[in-house]
Design a protein that fits this description.
Blueprint (H helix, E strand, L loop, with lengths): L22 H10 L14 E2 L11 H9 L8 H14 L3 E5 L2 H12 L5 E4 L4 H9 L3 E4 L20 H11 L7 E4 L12 H14 L3 E4 L3 H11 L8 H10 L3 E5 L10 E5 L2 H14 L10 H13 L3 H20 L12 E5 H4 L9 H13 L1 E2 L1 E3 L1 H4 L1 E2 L5 E2 L5 E5 L7 H16 L7 E5 L10 E4 L2
Parallel strand pairs: 1-10, 3-4, 5-6, 6-7
Antiparallel strand pairs: 2-8, 7-8, 9-14, 11-14, 12-13, 15-16
Length: 459
């Protein structure tokens, strides 16, 4: 049978114009932004790969749901549809809407966190880590060893190292670990999936020590599709069935609906513990809103419910995974070092191997990000020493294990010709990589500095 091109499983009904800029303009624009792409005006970006969060194109049925949203303050019918959909997928008893994922994290860790507490994860993402550390607690990462080596291929590089996890529990004491979390897919680890076997193994350890297991479910459908493709015994199961099994091992779920629910705002916290749910709802009322809207309009709840159904469509997931893979294959074949194999929502350039001449304290990932924008108007994000670097007591940078540049693909937004343009720009930057310079930070906030930091080019 002839293999045919995997086409977008949708038709385009509405379009948004792109404002074109030239290299001279962009050189000045990025300089004025303190060499931080977060501080650029979006109108000055040609292809925006800063994040896949909240950047999806919604479907006609989601827009219809926007019109049908029930804006009642309490007991909205849109909430009950949202609740039913989330419960069908996760199996959780208590469903608490929030305006986005970090709001769910803030509520959860404000209650269970605190000084002297520890939270293990395969890899925490930035807002999760920040919400934990804001309470005085410690966030610790235990991704498997293969997940730390970008050039090595493995099916489930997002897995948690269960041997290190158990050792950590014994060292810190189970009474000091309020919960264990698994992020699916593992965003900071390259968008790499977590296997069902690994979820089960982590659950067994958690049960042994009486520690609840939570899932950060931002990209649960992409993770479930990888399990279907790669894990023995799942090829004939639906993505919904795989997701339901994955969540059956969890005691709670946090989710930013801005990823796999295909919406521009929204999230939730789902729990099985009634007392914890009561405490979370109390804090929700103080900070977000009544428990049946949680900081969202009824129309947003409708759009989330519809998006959670659409994301389980395997034609969509096949297109989604393949389109990201296409970008990765093309630049990899030209010698650009990336995390292999390509992940679910993004391609991660290995900045250490791309720019071996620029040390971590000069932020090689940031250098690539700036050059991608200057050369082609592409906005990406550094995931390395800018985002996750810390300082020792002498002010010296402690770099994270990897220096990466993430090219996150918004869902249902760009066509293949857009991605072909991205490929051309990346290859041009790679060809001229010896000309790139390092950067130093001239301003940084005490937490989540990558959002607002400003930089200066080194000579």
């Amino acid at each position: 049978m002839t293999t045919r091109t995997i086409i977008e499983p949708f038709k385009i009904k509405s379009v948004e114009p792109i404002r074109f800029t030239n290299k001279e303009e962009r050189t000045e624009l990025i300089k004025k932004a303190g060499y931080n792409p977060f501080l650029l005006h979006a109108d000055d970006v040609l292809i925006d790969l800063l994040t896949d969060s909240g950047t999806s194109a919604m479907s006609s049925k989601q827009w219809a749901g926007i019109m049908d949203g029930d804006e009642s303050y309490a007991g909205s019918k849109s909430f009950y549809r949202f609740e039913e959909t989330v419960r069908k997928i996760t199996g959780m008893k208590f469903i608490i809407p929030t305006h986005q994922g970090r709001a769910a994290e803030k509520i959860l860790f404000s209650i269970v966190g605190g000084k002297g507490k520890y939270f293990p994860n395969n890899t925490h993402f930035d807002t999760t880590r920040a919400n934990i550390e804001f309470t005085g607690a410690e966030a610790d990462d235990f991704v498997v060893e293969v997940g730390k080596h970008s050039e090595i291929r493995a099916d489930f590089k997002g897995n948690m190292d269960v041997i290190l996890l158990e050792k950590f529990i014994k060292e810190k004491g189970k009474e000091n670990i309020p919960l264990c979390m698994i992020t699916v897919t593992n965003n900071s680890g390259g968008g790499q999936p977590v296997s069902m076997q690994n979820v089960r193994e982590v659950k067994e350890i958690c049960v042994q020590y009486g520690i609840p297991l939570f899932i950060d479910a931002c990209r649960f459908a992409e993770n479930a599709y990888f399990i279907k493709l790669r894990e023995k015994g799942y090829s004939n199961k639906s993505v919904l069935e795989i997701a339901q099994e994955m969540f059956s091992y969890a005691d709670g779920v946090t989710m930013s609906a801005k990823k796999d629910a295909l919406v521009n705002i929204g999230g939730f916290l789902a729990l099985n513990d009634e007392n914890l749910a009561m405490l979370c709802r109390n804090l929700l009322i103080v900070t977000e809103g009544f428990p049946t809207y949680g900081g969202l309009a009824g129309r947003d709840l409708e759009a989330v419910a519809q998006g959670l159904e659409e994301v389980l469509d395997e034609h969509y997931l096949q297109y989604r995974i393949r389109s990201v893979e296409y970008l990765g294959e093309r630049i990899l074949s030209a010698g650009v070092p990336i995390i292999e194999p390509p992940g679910g929502h993004a391609i991660y350039i290995d900045a250490k191997r791309f720019l071996p001449n620029i040390p971590p304290e000069q932020f090689p990932g940031q250098s690539i990000v700036i050059e991608l924008y200057t050369e082609g108007g592409i906005r990406a994000v550094e995931i390395g020493s800018v985002m996750f670097g810390k300082y020792d007591n002498k002010g010296k940078l402690i770099p994270p294990p990897m220096e990466l540049v993430r090219l996150a693909i918004p869902r249902r937004v760009y066509t293949q010709s857009h991605i072909d343009y991205v490929i051309e720009v990346i290859l041009e930057v790679f060809k001229n990589r010896d000309k790139l310079k390092g950067y130093k930070i001239t301003y940084e906030a005490p937490m989540l500095r990558h959002f607002t930091a400003r930089f200066e080019k080194l000579n």
